[in-house]
Write a sequence for this structure.
């Protein structure tokens, strides 16, 4: 089902310690998440990604509804050895909602 961006803003509280999004967003522990949709994994200038995330991008991983859903449900399995210290979102609606929230910051 389509996510609810307003609910997703609330879900994003779980991400904010490490990620910034919106006007003027800066890298924190994790990369800024503006223009995420259609972006190659591990590709934002000025962020020190893991070798695993850079390799995933070089092998063709691009962030979209499907790849974000898989990553956010199970980060460690979707990109083995990536350095995001986050267990993942357990509920499908939380995943869809946070994706709808993040889509607002993509062209
Ligand atoms: C990477 C989303 C929670 C730290 C990423 C990427 C996405 C993402 C889409 C890949 C970005 C890219 O390729 O440019 C999210 C969302 C979260 C969340 C939506 C909440 C549901 C967290 C938390 C932390 C964190 C809590 C810190 C404890 C990182 C780091 C990376 C990353 C360090 C880079 C991984 C690497 O280079 O291997 N995150 N994240 N994230 N995230 Fe998160």
């Amino acid at each position: 089902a389509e996510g609810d961006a307003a609910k997703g803003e609330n879900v994003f509280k779980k991400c904010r310690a490490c990620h910034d999004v919106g006007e003027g967003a800066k890298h924190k522990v994790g990369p800024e998440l503006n223009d995420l949709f259609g972006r190659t994994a591990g590709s934002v200038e000025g962020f020190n990604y893991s070798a695993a995330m850079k390799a995933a991008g070089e092998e063709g991983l691009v962030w979209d509804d499907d790849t974000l859903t898989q990553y956010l449900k199970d980060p460690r399995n979707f990109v083995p050895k990536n350095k995001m210290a986050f267990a993942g979102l357990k509920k499908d609606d939380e995943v869809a909602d946070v994706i709808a929230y993040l889509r607002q910051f993509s062209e």
Summary: The first helix runs from residue 5 to 11. DSSP finds five helices and no strands in the chain. The pocket of protoporphyrin IX containing FE is lined by residues 14-15, 17-19, 29-31, 36, 41-42, 44, 49-50, 52-53, 63, 72, 82-86, 89, 98 (CB under 6 Å).
